[in-house]
Amino acid sequence: MFASVGNGGNEGDGVSGSILIPKRFVWPYGGTRVSLIGSFTRWSEHIPMSPMEGCPAVFQVIWSLTPGYHQYKFIVDGEWRHDEQKPFVNGNYGPMNTIYLAREPNTLPTISSAETPGRSNMDVDNDVFGHVGTNPRMLGSDLEVSRHRISIFLSTHTAYDLLPESGKVVALDINLPVKQAFHALHEQGVSMAPLWDFGRSKFVGVLSAMDFILILKELGNHGSKLTEEQLETHTIAAWKEGKLQQRRAVDSNGGSYPSLFVHAGPHEHLKDVALKVLQNKVSTVPIIHSPSEDGSFPQLLHLACLSGILKCICRHFKYSSSSLPILQIPIGSIPLGTWVPKVGEPNGQPFAMLRPNASLGAALSMFVQAGVSSIPIVDDNDSLVDIYSRSDITALAKDKAYTRISLDQISIHQALLLGQDVNSPFGLHSGPRCHMCLRSDSLHKVMERLASPGVRRLVIVEAGSKRVEGIISLSDVFKFLLG
């Protein structure tokens, strides 16, 4: 996918030397030639918009604007148009869309400062990153104000704001053998992919790392009906149907148990997309452009996740951090994340941690039974050594490693080594595996780290010793922000 990029917005707007904020404009209703015009171009300059790769009916452009109030319209094949799905008003040029880009002085310099250059995410020192103080007023009006402003932002922006300028999406044919499917996931460096049914000309589901975990556990069962040889011909469709039959068998009501495919349309608001992720306990929601009446196929535009939505929030409030008072609160002072229970704490829930010599089978069982997406690997002092995530399981497809191992005899440490790439200093991953934070870190810092690509959770550690104190996931942050 691609988009034209402009650096305009600072000419003739009466603001000299003002900071510019990139803004994506999207026209999703087709056309041959589409351009953008607005108050930021003095209603004279036409800004060409480019069709998105793989979706020629959607046009987009990125244009830099000064903070403030702006009006704009689209010119589609010579006709002035406006997007009725976006805020608009009637003016001298007829109905026109409006946008307000806010900027307030950043009063939180210690929170929004950049990370120390050259510092690894595995490095934690004793300065507790500036000792952000506790604000006892947070649980009052500050929390409600912050949640309200975030809710307004998420309710007025759509999934189109998540679409990257360029990128790829991977989909799998539901008739592909399971074995080939997981080899494909490993080779593409992804842990899940939407499933396409050619017979029905529609997307029907998702194949994820959890499917691979369940298959490995099934292969490890002595009474299993599924053998490694059968994986050569056992299709994704057959595997999904078998899972569906198992779910029907345990349904106490004996009624229908439809297969759930969670997806979203490009016009859905970001809040609705986030709620779909949380309520359905999935990590990714495919964004699918519905087919039109001309018989064209549905188009897979993007795989939306909470990380991308959080990045939109951080970008939108970058210049107005003070409008969200909650950002300056240390995470140890708010009900956020899962924490290791203190000694003698009543009703303390066990915290999922394993030693490096624990078996891979124990880790897979913990994924299934505890419903966690990652497990901190710690030494005898509970200091963080590594982390094993559900997505790591696809690495066992490399060189058919899963055919040579026994889940109860191979350790987590050995399993991680199997997935390493000798040509990469960090193994299969392109960066540090462990991402950490301190209980004294501000929510702002935690949100910015979680908004980084590939980071889905932060392990809370004790300064210096790296002793694990808890874990914060993307879903934890959104449950807290949405209330």
The appropriate CATH architecture of the domain at 172-308 is: Roll
**Percent helix:** 10-25%
Shape: flat
Overall structural class, as computed from helix and strand content, comes to alpha+beta
Please report the distance between the alpha carbons of the first and last residues. Answer: 35 Å
Q: Uncertain runs with pLDDT below 50, 5 residues or more?
A: 1-17, 104-138, 252-258, 422-431
**Count of strand segments:** 21
Q: Could you describe the largest sheet, including whether it forms a barrel? A: 6 strands, antiparallel
Highest CATH level, the class of the domain at 172-308: Alpha Beta
CATH topology of the domain at 172-308: CBS-domain
CATH fourth-tier homologous superfamily of the domain at 172-308? CBS-domain
* Helix segment tally: 11
The whole-angstrom Rg is 25 Å
